[in-house]
Amino acid sequence: MPATTLSVIVPCRDAARHLPVALAAAQRNDDEGTEWLLVDDGSTDATPRLLAAFRPMRGRVRVLTMPEPSGVVAARAAALREAAGRYVTFVDADDWLAPGHLPAMVAAIRRLDVDFVRCDHLQVTGTRRSLRRVPEGRRDRPLPAHEGIGTRPGTLSAVDAPNLWAGVYDRRLADRGLLDVDPAIRTAEDRMTIWRLHLHADRFAVVDAPGYRYRREVAGSLTAIGDERQLHFFDAYEAVGRDLDADPALERFRPKLVRCVVDLVAHHEVSRARLHPLVHRRFRARARATLRGLPAPLVRQAVATLVPERVAALRGLA
Is the pLDDT of residue 131 over 80? Predict the structure, then answer.
C-alpha cells in the first residue's frame, strides 16, 4: 500500500443537497497517496448514505461518525486525529474542487519546501463567479510566515484571507497544535487558525492555483445565520491576543490584530439586521467591552482606516 501523501478532511452535516457535486469533484482530485476522511456530524438527511457510497478511484476513504452533532471544529479535530497524510487539507461539504487542484497544491508545497501553501479561490454566489485573491503579490516563493501578517493596520495581508480550506498544511503543524481550535468556537475558527499559523510557523507561500470553489450564502451555513455563534469571533481573536501576550517579540503585530477586531465589529454592526434582537444586544455589550479593552491609540488608528459606513456604525456603539 503506498504511503499516504495527503489527508483530505470533509466535515458534513445535512449536506445531501451539495454532496454529489463535492464528491464528484473529489474523484477528479484523487490520487493513490490520498486519503479522504469524511465526517458525518449528526446528519438527519441522506448524507450518511452518500458518504458510504463514495469510492475513490485510486486513494482510500474512511467515514467517521460523530456521536452527536458537534460542529465543524470538533469534526475536523476528530478526523485530524485519524489522519495519516504527510500533508493535510480541508474541504467544506457544500463546496467543490476544480480537477487537479489538490495534486497541484501538493506539488507546490513539496517544490517550495514550506510549512503551508495558500491559494486564491473562486467565490460562487448563485450563478455569479468571482475570484478572491490572497492579499500577497509575491507568488510561488517561500516567505517568512510573519510576513503574511504585516504591521500596517490599513494594509491587507494574507491573514485577511482567513480560509483554512484554501491551503495545504504540513502535518507537523498539527503535531505542534497549530491546527487546534477550542470546539466551543463555532464561527471565526479559520481566522484564529490562519493567524496562529502566520505567528508560529516558519515559512509559507501563496501559489496561483485558484481551484477551490467556495459556495457562498448557503442556507444553514454559519455565514448565513444570526444566532449566538456569530459572537464567537470575539473568542477567536482573544485567543490570538493571548498568543501576542505570551511572546513580546510578537507585540509588533498588535496594531494589525486590533484593526482586524475593529473592522469585524463594525461589519457585524452594519449587518445587524441578520442578528436576532437578543443576540444583537449581547453583541453590542461585548463589542463595547472589547473595544474599551483594546489600546485606545491603536483603536483610533484602526478606525481611521475604515470606510465611512463602518466608522458610523462604530459611533453608534459608543
Answer: yes
Q: Give the global pTM.
A: 0.93
- pLDDT band for position 236 (cuts 50, 70, 90): very high
pLDDT value of position 183: 86
Q: Which of 62, 69, 68, 84 is nearest to 10 (CA)?
A: 62
Q: Hunting for cell 478572491 — which residue is that? A: 132
> What's the rounded mean pLDDT across residues 82-104?
97
Q: Is the pLDDT of residue 144 over 90?
A: yes
- Cα–Cα distances in angstroms (integers) from residue 285 to residues 150, 155, 202, 223, 269, in the given order: 30, 28, 38, 21, 12
Over residues 249-268, mean pLDDT: 96
Instruction: Specify the CATH number for 6-215; select among 1.10.760.10, 3.90.550.10, 2.40.420.20, 3.90.1150.10.
Output: 3.90.550.10
List every span in the chain annotated with CATH 3.90.550.10.
6-215
